[in-house]
Amino acid sequence: MPAKGIRSLFLTIILPAIMAMILYFIAVYAVYIPLFERSMMNSKKEMINELTNTAWSLIKEYDEEYNNALITIDEAKQLARTKINKMRYGSDGKDYFWIIDTIPTMIMHPYRPELNFTNLSDYKDPEGKHLFVDAVELVKQNNEGYIHYIWQSNDDSTRLVPKLSYVKGYESWGWIIGTGVYLDDVEEEIDYLKNRLVKISLIILLLVALILAFIIRQSLKIENRRKETEEKLRLSREKYRSLVAASTEGTLMIIDEKIVFSNHIFNQKLGYASDEIITKSFNDLFEISWQEVADLIEHQNQSVAMETLLKQRDGKVRDIIISVSKVPYAGRDGYIVVVRDVSKNRQIEKETDMLTAELQTTLLLMNQPIRDFIRPFVRCALDTTVGEAAALMTRNRQHIIFIAENNRIIGVLNDSDLRVRVLAKGMDATVRVAEVMTAPVIAIEEEALLYEVILMLRQHATSHLAVKNRKGEIIGIISNRDVITMQHNALSYILREIEQASGVEEIKKIYFKVPVLVRALLESGDKTPLITRINTSVADAITNRLISLAIEEMGAPPCRFAFIVLGSEGRMEQTMATDQDNAIIFEDLNEEMEEEAQAWLLKFAERINENLAAVGYELCKGNIMARNPQWTRPLKQWKTLFSRWIKDPEPQYLLDSVIFFDFRTIFGDETFAVDLRKHINESIGNKSIFLYHYAQTIIRYRAPVSMFGSIVSDDTGNNDAFDIKRVLMPITNFVKLYALKNMLSETNTLHRLEQLTAKGEIQQALYNEVALAHNYLMGLRFRTQVRALNENRKPNNHIEINLLTDIEKSTLKKIFSVIADIQSKLSADYK
Questions:
Q1: What is the reported pTM?
Q2: pLDDT tens digits for 152-205?
Q3: CA trace torsion 86, 92, 94, 96 (10° rounding)
Q4: Alpha helices of 247-323 — where are they, by DSSP H?
Q5: Is the bond preceding 440 in cis, omega lying within 30 degrees of 0?
């Protein structure tokens, strides 16, 4: 293997493996063993605490017999002294208890009888510590506690070792009882653990060495295969030329952004001769630019299809669909472009069909967490010069470098920063990176989905994002280029159109694409959590754009505020039949300024609510909207309102307020929502009666099932249907109740459920049942609403019983039993 290949192998495989081993040893000896020592000591402390309390309880029993005149005080003390003198514990049955009084005088010591009934005021351990006097002082101050001293090991008076004892006073007798643990026992256990870890670490090291040897061997084989492949690629040039010439569709081939040849069918479509075509650029022939096409295709053998216009020689244009494939060509990237005409029928249905086709090829990728796309990153220290940083970036073929201090990432520097902040300002290459870096680092969690990366890249106008794990540690990067192929999926197009929309009518046209998007998602067989998440993203984007347009028209707001959404949108669980539920929290002001600010915000909210209704999001029948003065309040009033709901959890209050606990900020200052959530958690923590009454509303729910077990209608007004939203409510409210109990800030039902399961509040088996039930009901709800749209009916939440299959009915009955299970849990937890 060439030296370059060996160096690459060392940097990408061997060095990371060595670093991982070093970090492993550091973690074991610097973190795990100290943690184990602390845990062991805490366990021992807890043990002697409990044992002392047990012996103390024995004294109390004899004291109660004395108080009940069953025995005399002397008899009670003698019985207690004799009983405790015989008490032993520990693996060898030699650990014991001792008793002194507050003088101190030794009342009883099983292994040092010569001390019994002697004054211990002057008694000291080998280190000169008045241990019994210290015990008396500790009990006088705190009644109980721990003391450290040197003492003989059990019954072996020749061996003196460090000991930790727990002492507790029995006030009415003036006694102090104690027992302890020998610290050398703990040290022996730690030594044993260290020896085991060394052996295990050596085994791991050996395994890593074997794996590295295997990888190096495989890499050598791969390098040899690469050389063979280069020869095969050379032979492929003529193959592609023949393929283009023989194609029955208009076809051309592009190398290095130049048209190298085209077939006669393509030439006929344009009216050009072959020698004229190769003098043209792609941009001369098509309305779409070549850069837009190339950005969509990063990998070889990848294809994309898109609609555009073909510019003919006579100046006319024609609608076409181009399919572009990236192929290897003589060691370079080649592109084969196939051109097909769009028929009239296809023209009519193109929006739905193109959207569906696009989703079917990209949806699985969109649903992937970004951890599968993370790339390693390079880092440098704060005092590194920009010249050294640039060299490090070049060696590692990176466009970005992270700056670390004490192994913690604190800043970032990219190619653009070097140009704009260093070269353009005439700075020297010796300038420290700390002076020109960007901080703080913008990061996203590794569990985020790809489309969330796209949104964050746009929001922060950056080319790269750091990726952090659940511990908040930076583990890699993901760039705009890494996800650029996803920027042209249906959701991104819709969100981009929303961001650029200039008015309500334009947004309304975009909103009409949402049912097509949902229909395509369902046809693609994707999961309902993703559908609700995307559906909510569209609603958030529309609301954000309408708010921005309103501010442009009305001017700057008079104060800081947060526009929050409630209910299903707050939980990110919107469907096709969801009305508006929103409110405004604004900063606390003096009385005069508060009135002026509220008046402005109500006019502002009126415009937002009306424009949302014009787009397609219906006005709330219960008037839970920001334009209602009740729901546009300063923060202090919101806190008072929630406090009243929590303090007086009457049934009607609960029904009215339950929607408000699922709030989420989508525009403005998020600190208001964070502050309000903290207030709610603190209030509920002091008012468990609220959770009790909340639980009762869920327990009282009755599923639409007859006494014979068949599904029946509810009071929806339709004798042959039931409201699926009502079936979902006990599930979402059940999860919400435990989220409030555990002070979770998450609002999405499934995410709440995951966090509650991780905390042990909900068992894994119940989690599985509830999650499946929620997903199935949401999926059935979407399918029903899409069916209504297909039939040109207004979507709602009514499920026609006679349209359900036997499998659907059976599944629903199982879900009703799951609801009964959660009602049983609530009944047990909130009796």
A1: 0.47
A2: 887 777 888 898 999 999 999 999 999 998 888 777 777 777 788 778 878 887
A3: -70
A4: 264-270, 274-277, 282-285, 290-296
A5: yes
